[in-house]
Amino acid sequence: MLPDAPASAPADIPPLNGEPLPLEFVNTVFPVRGALCDGFRTPEHVAWWLGACRHRFATHIPDSALSGIGASDTHCFVLLRDAARRLVDAYVHQHDSDPWDVAQVNRVSSLGRPWPQLRWNTGGRPMAVEVGTAPPIVAVQVEIAHALVDLLGGESGMEPRACPAPGCVFFFDRARSRREWCSTGCGNRARAARHYARHHRLSGT
Ligand SMILES: [Zn+2]
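# zinc ion complex -> structure
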């Protein structure tokens, strides 16, 4: 189990592939038994994902914030995730973006005004935490929006790619490991599909 994951997970949770945060966020749409599944379809799903990823946010996310997630918070996560997903897709396929999606990300990016503060507990190591006027559930969306702006428009050094394996819908950062696929499993499936296609072309079946 992941170090900060809640003890009980709801059904059909998205995989955590260890991608940079904005890509992990858009990868919360994932295939289950041949159909696309929304990893944020209930407040419990949003709480699970945030709990599992909380160590990746500068925002401190207390348990009370996770248990307080409601339907409107969930709706906000879905809106931001869907806009982010379309923007990443447009980026990797070099299409024009939808101005509505850009506006969604920019709107969230401007919420609150977080600033870094030093937290240094006795006996521990110093760490930077973000504080601001937005409640934690909004502040984490702001962090995601900032990271997404940096990913698509800044100089993050990341190379987002869409996994080309058959049936895969995930995005991954090719700069991290020079992979062609999001995972070893997808690489194996893509090679097997290529082998199958070549074999059938040669045999004429
Ligand atoms: Zn894949």
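# post-check
The two ends are 46 Å apart (CA to CA).
The chain has a mean pLDDT of 90.
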